[in-house]
Design brief:
The chain has a 6-stranded mixed sheet with strand order 1-3-2-4-6-5. With 187 residues, the chain is α/β, with parallel strands linked by helices. It has a single domain (5-182), classed as Uracil-DNA Glycosylase, subunit E (3-Layer(aba) Sandwich). It contains 8 helices and 6 strands, in the order αββααβαβααββαα. The chain binds uracil. Uracil is lined by residues 41-45, 48, 54-55, 57, 59-60, 81, 157.
Length: 187
Protein backbone atom coordinates (compact mmCIF):
# COMPACT_ATOMS: atom_id res chain seq x y z
CA UNK A 1 0.00 0.00 0.00
CA UNK A 2 1.29 3.46 -0.87
CA UNK A 3 1.44 5.81 2.12
CA UNK A 4 -0.07 9.32 2.18
CA UNK A 5 2.21 12.37 2.37
CA UNK A 6 1.44 13.03 6.07
CA UNK A 7 2.20 9.36 6.83
CA UNK A 8 5.46 9.61 4.92
CA UNK A 9 6.34 12.76 6.87
CA UNK A 10 5.66 10.93 10.14
CA UNK A 11 7.84 7.95 9.13
CA UNK A 12 10.71 10.23 8.09
CA UNK A 13 10.59 12.05 11.46
CA UNK A 14 11.15 8.72 13.22
CA UNK A 15 13.87 7.46 10.85
CA UNK A 16 17.59 7.41 11.62
CA UNK A 17 18.95 5.71 8.51
CA UNK A 18 21.21 8.59 7.45
CA UNK A 19 24.16 9.91 9.47
CA UNK A 20 23.08 13.50 8.69
CA UNK A 21 19.92 13.04 10.80
CA UNK A 22 21.93 13.42 14.03
CA UNK A 23 22.57 17.11 13.41
CA UNK A 24 19.79 18.24 11.08
CA UNK A 25 16.00 18.28 10.79
CA UNK A 26 14.21 16.07 8.26
CA UNK A 27 12.90 17.92 5.21
CA UNK A 28 10.46 15.96 3.05
CA UNK A 29 9.05 17.31 -0.20
CA UNK A 30 5.87 19.37 -0.28
CA UNK A 31 3.20 20.46 -2.70
CA UNK A 32 0.29 19.13 -4.68
CA UNK A 33 -0.09 15.37 -4.00
CA UNK A 34 -1.61 15.03 -7.50
CA UNK A 35 1.06 17.10 -9.25
CA UNK A 36 2.00 16.21 -12.84
CA UNK A 37 5.31 18.03 -12.41
CA UNK A 38 7.85 17.28 -9.69
CA UNK A 39 11.02 19.32 -9.04
CA UNK A 40 13.91 17.59 -7.28
CA UNK A 41 16.82 19.54 -5.79
CA UNK A 42 19.94 18.42 -3.99
CA UNK A 43 19.62 18.82 -0.22
CA UNK A 44 18.10 21.31 2.23
CA UNK A 45 20.08 24.45 3.11
CA UNK A 46 20.05 26.44 6.34
CA UNK A 47 16.61 28.02 5.93
CA UNK A 48 15.09 24.69 4.86
CA UNK A 49 16.63 23.00 7.91
CA UNK A 50 15.22 25.72 10.20
CA UNK A 51 11.70 25.56 8.76
CA UNK A 52 11.59 21.85 7.82
CA UNK A 53 10.43 22.75 4.30
CA UNK A 54 12.17 22.43 0.90
CA UNK A 55 13.29 25.44 -1.19
CA UNK A 56 12.25 28.26 1.16
CA UNK A 57 15.55 30.23 1.08
CA UNK A 58 17.07 32.40 -1.67
CA UNK A 59 17.23 29.54 -4.22
CA UNK A 60 13.60 28.70 -3.39
CA UNK A 61 12.52 32.27 -4.02
CA UNK A 62 14.12 32.13 -7.46
CA UNK A 63 12.53 28.73 -8.12
CA UNK A 64 9.10 30.18 -7.22
CA UNK A 65 9.69 33.04 -9.71
CA UNK A 66 10.69 30.57 -12.43
CA UNK A 67 7.59 28.44 -11.82
CA UNK A 68 5.46 31.58 -11.96
CA UNK A 69 7.16 32.61 -15.24
CA UNK A 70 5.38 29.60 -16.80
CA UNK A 71 2.00 30.78 -15.51
CA UNK A 72 2.06 28.00 -12.87
CA UNK A 73 2.08 28.31 -9.08
CA UNK A 74 4.28 26.60 -6.49
CA UNK A 75 1.15 24.93 -5.12
CA UNK A 76 0.50 23.30 -8.54
CA UNK A 77 3.71 21.23 -8.40
CA UNK A 78 5.58 19.02 -5.96
CA UNK A 79 9.04 20.07 -4.76
CA UNK A 80 11.54 17.77 -3.10
CA UNK A 81 15.23 16.92 -2.67
CA UNK A 82 17.44 13.86 -3.15
CA UNK A 83 18.87 14.19 0.38
CA UNK A 84 16.46 14.85 3.22
CA UNK A 85 18.83 16.56 5.68
CA UNK A 86 21.13 19.57 5.44
CA UNK A 87 24.79 18.55 4.99
CA UNK A 88 27.02 20.51 7.42
CA UNK A 89 28.19 23.90 6.04
CA UNK A 90 26.11 23.21 2.90
CA UNK A 91 28.78 20.89 1.51
CA UNK A 92 27.84 18.55 -1.35
CA UNK A 93 26.05 15.41 -0.19
CA UNK A 94 28.24 12.29 -0.38
CA UNK A 95 27.30 9.32 -2.62
CA UNK A 96 26.54 7.38 0.58
CA UNK A 97 24.18 10.08 1.91
CA UNK A 98 22.38 10.21 -1.44
CA UNK A 99 21.99 6.45 -1.42
CA UNK A 100 20.79 6.34 2.20
CA UNK A 101 18.05 8.90 1.50
CA UNK A 102 16.99 7.30 -1.79
CA UNK A 103 14.03 5.27 -0.44
CA UNK A 104 12.22 8.48 0.55
CA UNK A 105 12.51 9.95 -2.91
CA UNK A 106 11.33 6.67 -4.46
CA UNK A 107 8.32 6.64 -2.11
CA UNK A 108 7.52 10.25 -3.00
CA UNK A 109 7.66 9.49 -6.74
CA UNK A 110 5.46 6.41 -6.23
CA UNK A 111 2.94 8.50 -4.34
CA UNK A 112 2.86 11.61 -6.57
CA UNK A 113 3.16 9.71 -9.89
CA UNK A 114 4.47 12.76 -11.77
CA UNK A 115 4.44 12.82 -15.59
CA UNK A 116 7.44 15.14 -15.72
CA UNK A 117 10.34 15.14 -13.26
CA UNK A 118 12.66 18.15 -13.28
CA UNK A 119 16.02 17.34 -11.67
CA UNK A 120 17.60 20.61 -10.52
CA UNK A 121 21.37 20.26 -10.86
CA UNK A 122 23.76 17.37 -11.30
CA UNK A 123 23.14 15.56 -8.01
CA UNK A 124 19.50 15.15 -8.81
CA UNK A 125 20.11 14.36 -12.50
CA UNK A 126 22.53 11.62 -11.35
CA UNK A 127 19.67 9.88 -9.60
CA UNK A 128 18.12 9.16 -13.01
CA UNK A 129 21.06 9.28 -15.46
CA UNK A 130 24.51 8.83 -13.93
CA UNK A 131 26.36 9.24 -17.22
CA UNK A 132 24.67 12.41 -18.45
CA UNK A 133 26.21 15.80 -17.87
CA UNK A 134 23.83 18.59 -16.90
CA UNK A 135 25.68 21.03 -19.17
CA UNK A 136 24.81 18.83 -22.17
CA UNK A 137 21.21 17.93 -21.41
CA UNK A 138 19.71 20.88 -19.50
CA UNK A 139 16.52 22.16 -21.10
CA UNK A 140 15.85 18.94 -23.05
CA UNK A 141 13.21 16.24 -22.52
CA UNK A 142 14.54 12.73 -21.78
CA UNK A 143 11.98 9.94 -21.99
CA UNK A 144 12.63 7.67 -18.98
CA UNK A 145 9.56 5.42 -19.31
CA UNK A 146 6.26 5.58 -21.24
CA UNK A 147 4.84 7.55 -18.33
CA UNK A 148 7.75 9.66 -17.06
CA UNK A 149 9.84 12.29 -18.82
CA UNK A 150 12.93 13.75 -17.18
CA UNK A 151 13.56 17.43 -17.98
CA UNK A 152 16.90 18.46 -16.36
CA UNK A 153 17.60 22.08 -15.48
CA UNK A 154 20.51 23.74 -13.65
CA UNK A 155 20.17 24.23 -9.91
CA UNK A 156 18.69 27.69 -9.10
CA UNK A 157 21.29 28.26 -6.34
CA UNK A 158 24.09 28.00 -8.92
CA UNK A 159 22.45 30.85 -10.85
CA UNK A 160 22.14 33.26 -7.92
CA UNK A 161 25.61 34.69 -8.50
CA UNK A 162 26.09 33.88 -12.18
CA UNK A 163 24.24 35.96 -14.77
CA UNK A 164 24.78 33.48 -17.64
CA UNK A 165 23.37 30.58 -15.65
CA UNK A 166 20.47 32.74 -14.54
CA UNK A 167 19.54 33.38 -18.18
CA UNK A 168 19.98 29.69 -18.95
CA UNK A 169 17.46 28.81 -16.22
CA UNK A 170 14.99 31.40 -17.50
CA UNK A 171 15.37 29.98 -21.05
CA UNK A 172 15.02 26.38 -19.81
CA UNK A 173 11.81 27.17 -17.96
CA UNK A 174 10.44 28.65 -21.20
CA UNK A 175 11.37 25.34 -22.91
CA UNK A 176 9.76 23.38 -20.08
CA UNK A 177 6.56 25.41 -20.51
CA UNK A 178 6.64 24.67 -24.26
CA UNK A 179 7.09 20.95 -23.55
CA UNK A 180 4.22 20.94 -21.01
CA UNK A 181 1.93 22.79 -23.43
CA UNK A 182 2.79 20.39 -26.29
CA UNK A 183 2.11 17.44 -23.95
CA UNK A 184 -1.15 19.04 -22.81
CA UNK A 185 0.00 19.02 -19.20
CA UNK A 186 -1.73 21.88 -17.40
CA UNK A 187 -1.55 23.24 -13.85
N1 LIG B 1 18.84 23.77 -2.42
C1 LIG B 1 18.34 22.53 -2.60
O1 LIG B 1 18.85 21.72 -3.36
N2 LIG B 1 17.24 22.21 -1.93
C2 LIG B 1 16.61 23.03 -1.11
O2 LIG B 1 15.61 22.64 -0.54
C3 LIG B 1 17.16 24.32 -0.95
C4 LIG B 1 18.26 24.67 -1.61
Amino acid sequence: MVLTLPELQEKLQAWDGCALSKNANPVLGEGNPNADVMFIGEAPGQKEDELGRPFVGAAGKFLDELIESMGWKRSDVYISNVVKYRPPDNRDPTPEEKEQCMPWLMLEIALIKPKVIVPLGRHSLGHFYQKMSISNVHGTAQKLTDDITIFPIYHPAAALHNGNLRQSLIDDFAKLKEYLDESEIKP
